[in-house]
Amino acid sequence: MDTMRDRFAPVVSRLLDEDPRVAVVLAEIGLADFAEARRRHPDRVINVGIREQLLVGAGAGLALTGLRPVVHTFASFLVERPFEQIKLDLGHQDVGAVLVSAAASFDWPAGGYTHMSPGDVALLDTLDGWTVHVPGHPDEAETLLRHAVAADDDKVYVRLSTQSNDRALPVDGTRFHTVREGRAGVVVAVGPLLDPVLDATEGLDVTVLYAATVRPFDAVTLRHATEAASPDVVLVEPYLAGTSVSTVNDALVDLPHRVLGLGVGRRELRRYGLVEEHVAAHGLDARSLRERIDGFLGVRVRA
């Protein structure tokens, strides 16, 4: 199966052909994938070199002219390094862009901590008005990329990962998807962590919600699920643990409830290792998730 990032250039290249408002801004990363599109649209495929602050600033400048810029590089270089430009050039100037990242939290361990970004979504949460898509399958990534580009002048972040679920679910860029229904609690699985969550909760009497879009947060579906089950919620996110705990609390503010936020820990793992080893070290493998979910909810096995 191809990866989410394998879909990125072909999808956006087609969008360049279809929509004269679309432009692509790159900082060397991914440039070769747009070679043909650059020949067809030399004025709308722009490489700024290894200058990530300029990457975002150029995207904002294009947005000010009425274009819909798609800005791409690794997550750590797209969100963390040029954060001031995201805050000011896009936010303060009130213009939109589609930021599309690669490498997620630790998709390329050999790149070291400079190429890891578990805090990207939490960092964007300090700003107003961002839509955040976290697809869990290449088909979902394609759908959500199209949603993002079509979203007029909205500020949208699309978080691509090499980690993937086995099958795509229908995503609409808005609502959570109910995968299982149970009575002992609600588990919200985000993006590529759905498969481990399903393995971890096999046979347990819990509701499993799937989130491929986390901002805005689908409070309506979550409330509906907690009304039919226990109002205790476990969040399983592929980035910094606890990132969405406050959004769950806001959604359930008038209900007595408990929340457990699982995700990537704050402690830096200083050995490269493999993606699977990082997953296990952060307790995001199916076995660890089952222990943590069961320990929090005290879940009984379905009869």
Automatic annotation (TrEMBL):
GO molecular function: magnesium ion binding
SMART domains linked to this entry: Transket_pyr
Gene3D superfamilies linked to this entry: 3.40.50.920, 3.40.50.970
Transketolase-like pyrimidine-binding domain boundaries: 2-168
UniProt source species: Streptomyces dioscori
The protein's name: Transketolase
SUPFAM superfamilies, per the entry: Thiamin diphosphate-binding fold (THDP-binding), TK C-terminal domain-like
